[in-house]
Amino acid sequence: xxxxxxxxxxxxxxxxxxxxxxxxxxxHALFAAMKVLSGxxxxxxxxxxxxxxxxxxxxxxTIWRWxxxxxxRAGDKRFELAECEAYLDxxxxxxxxxxxxxxxxxxxxxxxxxxxxFDHAG
Length: 122
Hints:
- About 65% of the residues lie in helices and about 10% in strands.
- The protein has a domain at about 1-45.
- The chain is mainly alpha-helical and about 120 residues long.
- Strand 2 (about 70-75) and strand 3 form a beta hairpin.
């Protein structure tokens, strides 16, 4: 097995995935590899929902509820780490979290009223 790249990429693992992929995925993979190798871009760290949740200590559903910015990478949603780190401090996320908390409180009040009503009716 060859030495892993600084971003955790391993040529043998890449080649195994490449050969197991369809033509469209292969074409995108080769294009991205050529751009990185030519120095025209740097490889970005894209994470799955599970990886991002683990990185930030959140549940997977929280990633979607908080509307983290996602990208379509070969048909799957992926998250760019630096972009998500910046999003954690954004005013947009603060607004979303406040709205979700307000909605949660309203649901709790409604359920408490319903429970009280049924408790007194019985």
